[in-house]
């Protein structure tokens, strides 16, 4: 059977990353994984507020092109193909009480027409029969675009951007398309934990190299 409805050549080109990477943030590391999972220097000194990570691949080549079509090319229907890859990556994680995507401010949502992270979360919920609860996390302030910002600028940009509902005792999967510096996911996960989430796992399609 072809993986996720893809021909063999495309399945190989879009296959998961198999090299060494940080087990906490997914940053590609310059040595192969062997034995215990590895941590990058940043995660050793400042561990992220999430517990588990599911990541499909690196943000380059055909996977990057597919994500760009999904995110900026007006192709939200690609969420179902991409969610299949995400479901495979998340098979190592315990199933959550609910799934949600990184929210967008309403102005940003109006400009793009859809939130790619929410579309991924909905498709993933359908694939795995999991409840999708976007209302658990809001983005009341429209922060500036992250493109071109340094890691420190992204962190300042994301700080205080999110507002969580009462999530006491819940295990949540937080979905995004790409991890660049991780600042957005750190801020969102920290807010969910502050609001009482028992566990937050992060799921993303791809990780960029260190910016």
Automatic annotation (TrEMBL):
It holds the Pfam family Pribosyltran. Residues 158-208 form the Phosphoribosyltransferase domain. It comes from the Bacteria. Gene3D superfamilies: 3.40.50.2020. Belongs to the ComF/GntX family. This is ComF family protein.
């Amino acid at each position: 059977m072809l993986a996720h409805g893809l021909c063999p050549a495309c399945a190989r080109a879009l296959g998961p990353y198999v090299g060494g990477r940080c087990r906490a943030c997914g940053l590609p590391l310059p040595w192969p994984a062997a034995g215990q999972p590895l941590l990058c220097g940043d995660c050793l000194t400042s561990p992220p507020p999430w517990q588990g990570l599911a990541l499909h691949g690196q943000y380059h080549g055909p996977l990057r092109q597919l994500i760009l079509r999904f995110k900026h090319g007006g192709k939200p229907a690609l969420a179902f193909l991409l969610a299949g890859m995400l479901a495979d990556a998340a098979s190592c994680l315990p199933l959550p009480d609910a799934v949600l995507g990184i929210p967008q401010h309403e102005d940003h949502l109006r400009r793009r027409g859809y939130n790619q992270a929410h579309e991924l979360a909905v498709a993933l919920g359908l694939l795995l029969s999991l409840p999708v609860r976007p209302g658990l996390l809001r983005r009341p302030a429209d922060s500036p675009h992250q493109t071109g910002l340094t890691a420190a600028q992204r962190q300042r940009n994301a700080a205080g951007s999110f507002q969580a509902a009462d999530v006491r005792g819940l295990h949540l999967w937080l979905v995004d398309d790409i991890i660049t510096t991780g600042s957005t996911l750190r801020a969102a996960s920290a807010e969910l934990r502050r609001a009482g989430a028992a566990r937050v796992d992060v799921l993303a399609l791809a990780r960029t190299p260190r910016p």
